[in-house]
Amino acid sequence: MSNGKLYLIPCTLGETATDHVLPAGNKEIIFNLRIFFIEEIRSARRFLKKIGYPTPFEEVQFIELNEHSKLPFEARYELLEPLRKGVSAGILSEAGCPGVADPGSDLVSTAHECGLGVVPLVGPSSILLALMASGMNGQSFVFHGYLPKDQGDRRRKLQEIERDSLKKNQTQIFIETPYRNQHLVDDLLSCCNDETRVCIASNLTTADEHVFTKTVSAWKEQKPKVGKVPTVYLMHRP
Amino acid sequence: MSNGKLYLIPCTLGETATDHVLPAGNKEIIFNLRIFFIEEIRSARRFLKKIGYPTPFEEVQFIELNEHSKLPFEARYELLEPLRKGVSAGILSEAGCPGVADPGSDLVSTAHECGLGVVPLVGPSSILLALMASGMNGQSFVFHGYLPKDQGDRRRKLQEIERDSLKKNQTQIFIETPYRNQHLVDDLLSCCNDETRVCIASNLTTADEHVFTKTVSAWKEQKPKVGKVPTVYLMHRP
């Protein structure tokens, strides 16, 4: 008997038709699964309903990852028991791709340690889409996740990564919690050099998608108003 | 009259059914385009045929990017003339996503400078899929592109990024031209610490997909044989 596989299942970013951002092939795979590692039960069920998942939810096992991802190795090993018995399972992202600025990587890591097969499915990643659309260097880039919350630390970090982008010709990518977007933008424009290029990519793949790359000096002339919406930031000092 | 848009169109990675890796929605967009910025005419036509593109190729304009991406701003501005007149166009990748370890970003950058809209479409990126499947830190990662060709330089670089992965808790991602895969693997195993985790992700999204993450010491016991196939490498020293 062969082992089950762990499928990594991306989800839409916000209110988007699934066939706009997910390959049809993903459905066939998802429809065959009965065990899902998830972030939040309600949104997981909503997603499965949206794609027409046929099995009644009473027959499906949903295991919350937020909790379990902090478990020690033994407990994660336990969670993967069905896979060792030949049953496949999926990690379902809340938005975007599992394991990329999202929980899931601990369980994937455990799957590798158990010698289980891991299969990543294609879907939208706001980080990757933002990089494509920024026009910045895609041969060399770094993703920092969230910058420090403290303003002094955040401004120092912005200056540090601006220097790195110049020194290494490397695109700097970072995110912010939506309600702090405007603070980050203000810091970006007040800390960074006028010739530094900044891309602000909001609401990717939705009807309100906006992606603009401008120099800091051009942004200063036309102040960006970033609402409380999911946004990816990219920076490059030429 | 509004401007045309520049669509960034991902392509399959190798021999994969398009509906396995591309959302159905991409087709509708592509079918409406008559101008494509491409890397190589033959593979562009092959891709368009594969997805059932309906317009005869005599009525389609293919503009090679390899050449034109090195053009000065004025020439790139010229290439975008149709968009300023209201006609949309696409950048078609050879494999994966335009602008990510692939040409295209210069033209996207010019589009931003002209105030044109840029729309990234969803598709397979071997870098992103490898990161998801590696089980390594997806909150903080860096992509280096190709490492140095010279063996001494390459080994120094591997040690440098291994130190970075420890210091910053940052996943290090890099690629190699297929025929040099085995040299890179040999260097990885001989330069890096035994506890460093290395992921080797080959032939992603194809029938021959292989993704394995192991410590250097585990890889030494079971020497990886990486063929001359597209491969992404990831490293993390815990």
Fill in the keyword field for this structure:
homodimer; 238 residues; alpha/beta; Cobalt-precorrin-4 Transmethylase, domain 1; Methyltransferase, Cobalt-precorrin-4 Transmethylase, Domain 2; five-stranded parallel beta sheet; five-stranded mixed beta sheet; 10 strands; elongated
Please outline the helices and strands:
The structure is a homodimer of 238-residue chains.
Chain A: E1 5-9, H1 18-21, H2 24-31, E2 35-38, H3 41-50, E3 61-64, H4 65-68, H5 73-79, H6 81-84, E4 89-92, H7 105-113, E5 117-120, H8 126-134, E6 141-146, H9 151-168, E7 171-175, H10 181-191, E8 197-202, E9 210-215, H11 216-221, E10 231-236
Parallel strand pairs in A: 1-4, 1-5, 2-3, 2-4, 6-7
Antiparallel strand pairs in A: 7-10, 8-9, 8-10
What does this structure look like?
The first copy, chain A, has 238 residues and is of the alpha/beta class. Chain A has 2 domains: 116 residues, Tetrapyrrole methylase, N-terminal domain (Cobalt-precorrin-4 Transmethylase, domain 1, 3-Layer(aba) Sandwich); 111 residues, Tetrapyrrole methylase, C-terminal domain (Methyltransferase, Cobalt-precorrin-4 Transmethylase, Domain 2), CATH 3.30.950. Chain A is built from 11 helices and 10 strands. In chain A, the strands form 2 sheets. The first copy, chain A, has a 5-stranded parallel sheet, with helices on both faces. In chain A, strands 6-7-10-8-9 form a 5-stranded mixed sheet. In chain A, strand 8 and strand 9 form a beta hairpin. The longest helix of chain A is centred in the C-terminal third of the chain and has 18 residues. Chain A is elongated and about 60 Å long. The N and C termini of chain A lie far apart (56 Å). The model of chain A has no long low-confidence stretch (mean pLDDT 94).
